[in-house]
Design brief:
By secondary structure, the chain is an alpha/beta fold. It has one domain (about 10-285): Rossmann fold, CATH 3.40.50. It is built from ten helices and seven strands. The chain has helices spanning about 10-20, 35-40, 45-55, 60-85, 120-130, 150-160, 180-190, 210-225, 240-250, 260-265; strands at about 90-95, 110-115, 140-145, 170, 200-205, 250-255, 280-285. Helix 5 (about 120-130) links the parallel strand 2 (about 110-115) and strand 3 (about 140-145). Helix 1 crosses helix 4 (about 60-85). The longest helix has 27 residues, at about 60-85. The protein is globular and about 50 Å long. The two termini are about 30 Å apart.
């Protein structure tokens, strides 16, 4: 990522969520009234996303559209459960243009929300929020983090995260850009938090669990992200990832498989949206 240029993938994810907010997608998987205000249909990046989607077969395009909204919806559903269990701190790792804090439900005002991301991305996001006249709630803290200069643990401590109280972490569309060692470091930080803390994150599955026609597609996307300076560094076999989390000390691990995601979120839809096997979700509780 260029020093003063935010992540292209952050903008792409917001564009996908914005595209979901049309009447064609009723009932919406994710009701995100903020995302359309943060993307510019006239920008080169927006046009590039649309052109890329239009080149895909319709079933594949719909799966890509479904991924961004489903992963946010699942994380927010898990957060609501954690809140009911007494968790009052929410850390969004690699927040990008995540919009939960700006459309938070009434119970969200009792949360302390920490958005963690690269300083350039956060400056860009705050500018977009200001231009759209979207108020930044009092319960949100921006935690700028340049991994080359400071550790995640140090940044969160400086932001006054309370590591004596349970914490809910989300990390969406990020793990594939981390080395396995860097992901392990993040998971160890989560494990250092008190009982009832948890993390929900997405991951890109390895080829052996993908349909043959999607393997070539994923390799093409992998090459494309590498070409724009955001290479994928990690992919996981779901069963091995779940086993690793248990072995590392998480008390409960739940893998949201594509089949389970379809059952929860995509039944009886008329728009054709369904879960994409390449990007899956996992939830791990301390």
């Amino acid at each position: 990522m260029e020093e003063e240029r935010p992540s292209w993938t952050a903008e792409g994810a917001a564009t996908m969520r914005a595209l979901h907010q049309t009447p064609d997608h009723e009932p919406r998987i994710l009701d995100d009234r903020i995302a359309p205000q943060l993307v510019d249909p006239q920008s080169d990046s927006y046009k590039s996303v649309i052109e890329s989607l239009e080149r895909l077969p319709k079933p594949t395009r719909l799966r890509f559209e479904a991924t961004s909204v489903m992963r946010s919806r699942y994380a927010e559903d898990c957060l609501a459960e954690a809140f009911d269990n007494g968790v009052r701190q929410y850390i969004v790792l690699g927040a990008g243009l995540d919009t939960f804090a700006y459309r938070q439900p009434p119970w969200g005002s009792s949360l302390r929300i920490f958005e963690v991301d690269h300083p350039a991305t956060q400056r860009w996001k705050r500018r977009l929020l200001n231009e759209a006249r979207i108020t930044i709630p009092d319960n949100i803290s921006f935690v700028p983090l340049d991994f080359e200069k400071v550790s995640l643990a140090t940044a969160l401590s400086q932001a006054r995260v309370d590591f004596d109280a349970p914490i809910f972490f989300s990390m969406l569309g990020v793990s594939q850009y981390l080395s396995e060692a860097a992901l392990d470091q993040t998971l160890r930080l989560v494990l250092s938090a008190p009982a009832q803390s948890e993390i929900v994150f997405s991951f890109v599955a390895t080829d052996e669990v993908l349909p043959p026609d999607e393997v070539a597609l994923i390799k093409a996307f992998e090459a494309r992200f590498a070409a724009i300076g955001e290479p994928w560094l990690s992919r996981f076999l779901p069963e091995r990832l779940a086993a690793k989390l248990r072995d590392n000390g998480f008390s409960r691990v739940f893998h949201l498989s594509p089949e389970e995601a379809n059952h929860r979120y995509f039944q009886n839809r008329r728009d054709g949206l369904n879960a994409f096997p390449s990007e899956q979700m996992i939830r791990a509780t301390v």
